[in-house]
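This section describes the prediction task in plain terms. A model, or a person checking by hand, is given the sequence of a single protein chain and must write out its three-dimensional structure as a string of tokens. No templates, partner chains or ligands are provided. The sample shown here is typical of the held-out split.
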Amino acid sequence: MVKRNRQSQNFREGAPLIFGNSIAATFSENGDDDSIPLGSLVAVYVSRDHDQNQKGKKYKKTKPSNEPAYTHTNYDSSEAAQFHSTINNSQLIGYGVYNPHSMYRVRILCHATQHPVLAKESKRKQKQRVEDHDNEILNSILERKMSDAMNLRLAMNLPSESTDTYRLVNGEGDGCSGLAIDIIGGSTAIVMSSAAWCEVHKEAIVEVLDGLLNDHPSYTGVDIEIIWRNTPSRLKQDGYELSSESEGSEEDDTAVIATESSVKYLTYPYSNGQKTGFYCDQRDNRLMVAEYCRDKRVLDLCCYNGGFALNAMMQGAAHCVGVDSSQDAIDAATANAMENDLDQAKISFVREDIAVYMKNAMSQEEEFDVVVLDPPKLAPNLSTLDKASRKYHALNRDAMNLINRDKGGLLLTCTCSAAMTQKDGGQYFLNMVNGAGHSAKRRVTLLRVNGAAPCHTQSPASFPAGAYLTAALFHVGPIGS
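The expected answer:
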């Protein structure tokens, strides 16, 4: 039971995360524990009584100040009528999974306002005590959410002849907080778990996903292999400790070819190194900037597997240089260039710290027509934003200094730090780039601002919390303009 206040209004309107301090009380029928167990399916209600908060104060227990205070009641069959009456006189918000150890006490998977038929059917199963009803309800919710996600991607023409690699399920954007699924090469599904409930219900998630992929119209006759991945640091924040057996796996360098916008990439989904992943969030941005690169000299900074450089070459760039500090990334980018039969005399990849590379390039008076700057996350949270902003400023300033001095050129500058993207509605990042232009004594003109590819869906109820990527395209004027 959550408190009736402005925050619970957000839950009723689709916000997927319920914090502990929003809960008034919890209840279990015939339970044995002093809390609802981790990963349990719960029905979330809000009282229709506006005075509920005041009445509930006497039930609060003394707890450490960093923990929410609310009571948990186990009731037996003889008391059921009383509690059922309270519940029946309350408003159903939806169904979710409970975590007594996390600041996100409930992750709602099915909102009654968004899925009224599914919520009504789930409530019926609970009332009628359908055998194993909790698991049956959860499976029905997962099947509906994943099926909706697949249909949404089909509406975006994913997969297609030119792209077989994309995000199939994107956490809260698809109503599955803590769960992401990528399809790689039309043959592999990588499930990424960052919430405790995903680990608890791993078997159900895999079973539902496997069944839906088998029925997917694009994968008739294809046996898509499902690979389970998790993020230990995120799971630890969610109060879930992985066992030592589940944290590591044997290295396997089996390659899977991923195709995106007709560009082929060697990916290694069975490996544990940096070359493991493929970031399809920049798909549209890679193609967008490539269209401006014909007959241009292009510099791809923090190139990873060469995505921007490869797209630029496929669109007729005169010459491309990719720079990254990771040897794995350089090896992968070089292999990808060969996989796409690109002229090795026109594209090269250099292992170097990008700050060092840019300073050396400036001293040699090198110039480029298009520069892409896509650094890793420099601001993991708000507390590091000021320091990260100074780093972003310096990198953007130096990148501008490498753009054609006589004619000017284009700069695509990116941040994947949610703290930077969300600050002041995105204006903070743009102001930083503008300041870097002043430092470089170059006039900058904003042409467009993009986010992640649309398969990285977002929930409007929790926006901008899901927004993390900014890709801003600027024209950098010539010196003295």
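For orientation: The CA atoms of residues 161 and 262 lie 8 Å apart.
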